Amino acid sequence: MPDYSWPPMEKRRVIGKRTSRLEGPAKASGKAKYASDQNPQGLLHAVLLTSPHAHARVKSVDITAAQKFPGVTGVRVISGPGTEVQWAGTEIAILAATSEGIARDAVALIKVDYEVLPHVVRENDLSKVGNRAKAAGEQVTGDPDEAFKGAAAISENLYSIPVITHCCLEPHGQVVAMKGDKVEYWPSTQAVSTVGGDLARGLEIPAANVHVQMDHVGGGFGGKFPADRWGVESAQLSKMSGGRPVKLFLDRETELTIAGVRPSAFANIKIGAKKDGTIVAWQSQSWASGGFGGGGMPPLPYVFTKIPNYRLNHTAVSLNAGSARAWRAPNNPQASFLTCSALDDLAAKLNMDPLDLFLKNVDLTIRPDTYRSQLNKAAEMIEWKKNWRPRGENKDGVMRRGLGIGIATWGGAGHASKARTTIHPDGSVEVELGSQDLGSGTRTVIAMVAAETLGLNIGQIKVKIGDNIYPVSGPSGGSTTVGGVSSSTRKASMNALQKLFEVAGPIIGAPPDRLEAVDGKIRMIGNPDKGMSWQQACQKLGVNTITEMGENDTKRTEGLNTGGASGIQMADVSVDIETGVVKMNKLVAVQDCGLVINPKTAESQVLGACIMSVCSALMEERIMDQQTGRVLNADMEFYKLAGIADIGDIVVHMDIAPEHDKRGVIGLGEPPAVPGVAAIANAVANAIGVRVPSVPVTPKNVLAALNGRRIA
Amino acid sequence: MSSIKDPENPKKPTTGFSRRGFMRGVGLSGGVLGTGLLEQEATAAPPTPSVSGPAAVPITLQINGKAVKTSVEPRETLLDTMRNSLDLTAAKRVCDRGTCGACTVIVSGKVMYSCTILAIDAQGKEIETLEGISAKNHPIIAAFVANDAQQCGYCTPGFVVASKGFLDKHPNPTYEDVKKGLGGNLCRCGTYMGIRQAVVDAGKQLKGGRNA
Predict the structure, then answer these.
(1) pTM for this entry
(2) What's A265-303 look like in SS3?
(3) How many CB pairs below 8 A link A and B?
(4) Alpha-carbon distance values, A129 to A86, A87, A260, A292, B118 (Å)
(5) Which one in A32, A173, A342, A518 has a CA-CA gap of 20 to 30 Å to A658?
(6) Residue A134 domain-assigned?
């Protein structure tokens, strides 16, 4: 069996080089076709009718007028009489028509009678949610009561971080054509290899009957794994309409209402320490909601898991609101914000520099050395010692400046992935995987790994992904893609190369296991003059091709990939205490990520995650209206995202070093999306001298904190 | 806006202000949307304008230097016409109400959101889309690639067009100019750092090109 391990750092010719993403020119020139850009012949447009009520029972649905409307080709009831609707936006009916305008006119003719039932859509005040609260059991370790008695300082506070949405720019949806029991499917998905099976289950047809194709996806962030009801129903409409393809992409209001959210998290946290800052006890009473399904406890205490005495209580709150989906590092940004806020407030109680308090307690984490060095590196990048002042003391007129720290951990080992590498007699190479590129640079990484392995340049590799006819590769979730596809590609390409060595060996006059592929040549190890060009070697294949598989076995990754990434971010903000506006000066990120295949796109991942953190720290919040039971800001005017001027300066340090490199490839989607919110919230507390307990740190929340008011 | 009523269409089940429902009621030719005149004209009960629709009407659009004929319902936005009828899909439909900039095009030299323009109103104006800009190999495109100013890429076409329009008016901008000049577009993946640099770099190349 060949040695699949990564070549040593100093010998790499492609891996580790800053490489522009392969699909960059297609995207920047507008030629890249997304699922929502597909306009196949005979296309029909579907529109959903959704429930205006947050909690109701459907009494009747009358579709007769819609069915008769000229241009309508099919109408289906999704939630028939008797269905109990549990959130506004629930799909009631769907229809397809020859144009989107006709579909919208026709859907307005569907008459639905509801029995409206009482709803609960806000979880901020636990005393008002009644029987929607479900307490989980208490967890206790050590003796927290005794430990608090002995603590030199105790900080106790309530912190909260709201529900936010994915707000993918390409909404959820698909184009789908169903003829008989065969389906052509162009979804916007994070799961090319598995979403077809999901659709097939909904349609009760064999999974093999669904052909999935998707070259590009306009954002997923954890929200685009299933086929969804609108996918299944659109396929049924296609079948009703003689197999004509049907397009449905959610409009923005529906996208922000039902296509997934990140759960909220609220916590009363009490934390105690010795005089030197050593944390001795933790107690948290938390609650959360991610919609009707409730909301689990964020992993508390976060990162500092070895606090010797703690008591944890959690309550899940079921709301009549659109349900949760994975959101870039599920529950981790919330946990980081809650934990780091408590640590920062504890440092203030002790009149201690929070950097010193974090450093003092790194032994309570599972990777003390890594966090210590990352804290020191980030502090150096943001010039902590020069710029930090005690809370509220860095003043300039009405402006207050402050620094803050956030911390992250994540897994990120590779998912199950199969790759197929084919070497053709003309020297061309194809690598095929049923994977997807979310914009994270997956295509480019696959090409780089194959090129490195085969001694070619990336232009000689044709990467084929985005189609479920290719070997099965996992969904892109949990930062598992890069580890999975790089390992399977490495193995498939190495296996194919062995076969080529077997052909070329006798001609070169060297045993196959004494050959190497370097710089477009097949040559003898230690005797570079003895060899032939890649082209010549491939010509010897005659009419045959070499096709070999490679698989990332998640139980035995052979050092190619692993999990366990650490990260530290530090923020520098200025706050106007008259207006409450927070201005980002700088955010620095120190990110450990194992072996980095493409530093250029890896850095982009971290930069993007930092910017997302600015959004959720300062702006983003799904606002529910208890009166109507609906989302008040299901649009992009009032569901706020940061613009190009709002983000300050962002500096990324990738911890590329031999000691990290030897761990193999680690995923990078999630980890940098975790610590930013905590860092920014702590920087604001440092700037203005008081804690703003509720994220987002909007002007309203800043001014309330400054005035000693609490906003529910 | 509440002064606009459509007595012909009382069955509307609207749950609040709907731009689509609003446009359906408008259907005026002559282009008053987004000018601020709309409300005044509507409340002042102007003389009856010429009315198009509601059925589809033939139109001719001048897109990327070519006259293109199609037929549209008068309520249809330029964005939807481009995407659904003309297979010009570079411009994306994201917010669909003039907030995010993913549908940006250049109309008569002005950077505009194509989701806020009716296709019938865009007649007689020179429309430039990313398809036209990329056909001319504008340096902004290579600068976006070189600076990795894109991830999922769904906001990218709008940003590239907005950047091109910005550079037309502000050649050789600074980093700070770019922050102010591209505030009308939103990205979700977080590609702003690359975009800032790409626009600055492209500006330098454009200037170099002129001086060469």
Answers:
(1) 0.94
(2) EEEEEEEEECCCCCEEEEEEEEEECCCCCCCCCCCCCCC
(3) 181
(4) 15, 16, 22, 13, 46
(5) A518
(6) no
Rounded to a whole number of angstroms, the distance from the CA of B110 to the nearest CA of chain A is: 19
A607 within 8 A of A650, measured Cβ to Cβ: yes
Q: How far apart are CA B32 and CA B39, in angstroms?
A: 9
Domain coordinates in residue numbering, chain B: 137-211
Do both A323 and A239 map to the same domain?
no
The phi and psi torsions of A586 (rounded to 5 degrees) equal: -160, 145
User: Strand A565-576 to strand A582-591: parallel, antiparallel, or no bridges (unpaired)?
Assistant: antiparallel
Q: Which of A90, A141, A592 is nearest to A364 (CA)?
A: A141
Give the type of residue at A219.
G
| In contact, A522 and A532? CB cutoff 8 Å | yes
Q: How far apart are CA A224 and CA A390, in angstroms?
A: 44
| Distance between CA atoms of residues A196 and A209, nearest Å | 8
Tell me the mean pLDDT in the region A199-221: 98
Looking at the structure, tell me whether residues A192 and A84 fall in a common domain. Answer: yes
Treating both helix axes as pointing N-terminal to C-terminal, what angle do A195-203 and A228-240 enclose, rounded to 10 degrees?
60
The partner residues of A518 in beta bridges, in order of sequence, read A521
A582 and A514 within one domain: no
Query: Cα A84 from chain centroid?
Result: 31
Of B87, B99, B129, the CB nearest to A637: B99
Indicate the residue type of A320.
N
Judge: B84–A39 Cβ closer than 8 Å, yes or no.
Answer: yes
Q: Which amino acid is at A511?
A: P
> A147-194 pLDDT, tens per residue?
999 999 999 999 999 999 999 999 999 999 999 999 999 999 999 999
- Which residue range(s) make up the domain with A238? 41-118+172-249
- The number of folded domains in chain A is 3
Cα gap A115→A83, rounded to integer Å: 10
At B48, the pLDDT band (50, 70, 90 cuts) reads: low
* Cross-strand bridge partners of residue A546: A423
Mark yes or no for CB contact A637/B97 under 8 Å.
yes
A639 to chain B, closest Cα gap in Å: 11
The phi-psi region of residue B65 (left if phi > 0; otherwise alpha if psi is between -120 and 50; otherwise beta) is: left
Cα(A459)–Cα(A47) distance, integer angstroms: 42
Asked if B42 contacts B3 with a C-beta cutoff of 8 angstroms, the reply is yes
Q: Does domain B137-211 have CATH number 1.10.3720.10?
A: no
SS3 A499: helix
pLDDT tens, residue by residue, B55-94: 899 999 999 999 999 999 999 999 999 999 999 999 999 9
ipTM, 2 dp: 0.97
Instruction: Determine, for residues A252 and B191 on separate chains, whether the beta-carbon distance falls below 8 Å.
Output: no
Q: What are phi and psi of A610, to 5 degrees?
A: -65, -45
Q: Do A643 and B96 make contact, defined as CB atoms within 8 angstroms?
A: no
Window 116-135 of B: residues touching A by CB (8 A cutoff) are: 129-131, 134
Length of chain B counted residue by residue: 212
A170 part of contact set with chain B, CB < 8 Å: yes
Residue appearing with tokens 């980081």? A336
Residues A202 and A311 in one domain: no
Shared-domain flag, residues A225 and A270: no
Cβ contact (<8 Å) for B99 and A600? no
Q: Which two tokens stand for residue A185?
A: 């499917």
User: Crossing angle of helices A676-688/A332-349, nearest 10°?
Assistant: 30
d(C-alpha A288, C-alpha B17), whole Å: 32
> Residue A666 corresponds to which tokens in the numbers above?
């680690």
- Mean pLDDT of the A18-38 span: 98
SS3 letters for A117-182?
CCCCCCCCCHHHCHHHEEECCCEEECCHHHHHHCCCEEEEEEEEECCEECCCCCCCEEEEEEECCE
User: How many residues are given for chain A?
Assistant: 712
Across B172-182, average pLDDT: 94
With beta carbons less than 8 A apart as the criterion, state whether A80 and A113 touch.
no
